[in-house]
Each structure stands twice: as structure tokens, then as C-alpha cells.
Design a protein that fits this description.
Blueprint (H helix, E strand, L loop, with lengths): L3 E2 L7 H20 L4 E4 L12 E2 L7 H13 L3 E5 L6 H7 L5 E8 L24 E6 L5 H18 L3 E6 L16 H12 L5 E5 L5 H16 L4
Parallel strand pairs: 1-3, 2-8, 4-5, 4-7, 5-6, 7-8
Helix pairs in contact: 1-2, 4-5, 5-6
Bound molecules: zinc ion (ZN).
Length: 233
């Protein structure tokens, strides 16, 4: 296998990347042990790491490791819902031919947004995995209401797949003032997103992916989690 990369390695990369995987697995264990939800602050993020390519600040695919662990250990079907601004090319690639892990993603249209090569609506999975991959590319400046409509469509697909566990790749780079992205979701939109996902009624593991308006990142994560947990901001 030729390993390809577009993300630099530095001293400490392996330790940090391995720590992020451990964080994802610990967050997953908390839910398997009976909590309704958990949140893993994974750093570095993971959804751009494929089987043979790491890029977009990602090295190991935290969400994919957790999803594969649950599916292969317990035979439980898992959905990875990816709401990061960027399409999770890594997670899609890893599960593209499988029917035990569904991948559903809302993201900036790859005709203009990283990773450019994947994330198109006609990528539906292959072989046994056909139908277990759903991409919903979004236009520039998508605001809360149309974003919620897209998320509602994603939730319909998740209900149809009927997983036993949900893993959310939570990117907050859909935020209206994110410096590297071009959607227009507000903090209230994040709360509404968490609330909509809560209505799926699934055990839910939330793992941190991107988010580059660092001054608002913490409160945006809080808003999303408050929606998920039905608690007040
Ligand atoms: Zn991103």
C-alpha cells in the first residue's frame, strides 16, 4: 500500500492522533454502557482520513474506528452523520461498500469546497453498500431554515436505515462567520440541529471534527449539545 498524505507530520503527531482515537472509543463506551449521549473532543479530527490517505488535518478516522468497533464487535448497525462543512471523504471511502455502517453527510458543494473529489449527490455506495451512502451538498450562504430542511432529509434516511447507534461527526465550520467556509448557520441553528437529531431517539456519540471561528467554537458546540440533550443554553 502506498500511503498518501496532504497533512504534515510533526513530532507528537502519532501520540495526538492516537489520543483522538482513544477519546472516540471512550465516548462510544460511555454510550454503550448506558448513557443516552456522549461528546468526544477529538483533536486532531478524523473524517478526511481514508484507508490510504490522510489530509485535511486528519490522520486516523476517529468516527470510522468507533463505528467499525461497534458494528464488528456487537453486530449493531451504525450511522455516521457528518455535519462538518467539508465532506468526510475518509468516512465515505471506508464504508462505501458496506451495509452495516451508513454514512450521511451535509456539506458545502464539492464543486467549490474541499475535498473537491468526493461529496457529490450521485455517490450512493457500491455493492452491498449501495444505498447506504447519502450526500447532501449545500449551496453558498445556506441559512438556518434551508439547513434544517436538509438535516431533516438526512434524518429521514437515518430512520429508514434503522441503526442501533448514531455517531455524529460534529463540525462547526458551517457557522456564519467561519473564516474558511461559506455557509451561514447561526448558533440557534446549531441548537435546532441538536434538537432534531435528539428526535431520532438513538444512543448518540458526538465527536468533534472542524470549526475555525475559534472565539465562537466553544459556545457553538455547547448550543448543539444543549439541543441534543434538551437542556437550556
Ligand atoms: Zn471541516
Amino acid at each position: 500500500m502506498v500511503l498518501r498524505t496532504t497533512t504534515p507530520l510533526t513530532e507528537g503527531t502519532y501520540t495526538a492522533a492516537r489520543g483522538a482515537v482513544d477519546t472516540a472509543l471512550t465516548a462510544t463506551k460511555i454510550v454503550l454502557d448506558g448513557e443516552a449521549n456522549s461528546y468526544g473532543l477529538c483533536r486532531p479530527p478524523g473524517h478526511h482520513a481514508t484507508t490510504d490517505l490522510y489530509g485535511g488535518y486528519c490522520f486516523f478516522n476517529n468516527a470510522a474506528v468507533a463505528a467499525h468497533y461497534v458494528s464488528s464487535t456487537f453486530g449493531t448497525k451504525v450511522t455516521v452523520l457528518d455535519v462538518d462543512y467539508h465532506h468526510g471523504n475518509g468516512t465515505q471511502e471506508i464504508f462505501y461498500g458496506r451495509d452495516d455502517v451508513q454514512y450521511v453527510s451535509l456539506h458545502g458543494d464539492p464543486t467549490r469546497a474541499y475535498p473537491y473529489i468526493t461529496g457529490y449527490a450521485d455517490e450512493e455506495g457500491t455493492g452491498r453498500g449501495r444505498g447506504a451512502n447519502l450526500n447532501i451538498p449545500l449551496p453558498k450562504r445556506t441559512e438556518d431554515d434551508p439547513y434544517m430542511s436538509a438535516l431533516d432529509r438526512a434524518c429521514e434516511a437515518i430512520r429508514a436505515f434503522s441503526p442501533g447507534l448514531l455517531i455524529v461527526s460534529l463540525g462547526l465550520d458551517t457557522f456564519v462567520t467561519d473564516p474558511i467556509s461559506d455557509l451561514a448557520v447561526t448558533q440557534d441553528g446549531f441548537r435546532r440541529s441538536g434538537d432534531l437529531v435528539r428526535q431520532l431517539g438513538l444512543p448518540t456519540v458526538v465527536l468533534q471534527e472542524g470549526g475555525y471561528d475559534v472565539n465562537a467554537l466553544g459556545t457553538n458546540v455547547q448550543a448543539w449539545l444543549h439541543g441534543l440533550a434538551a437542556t437550556k443554553n
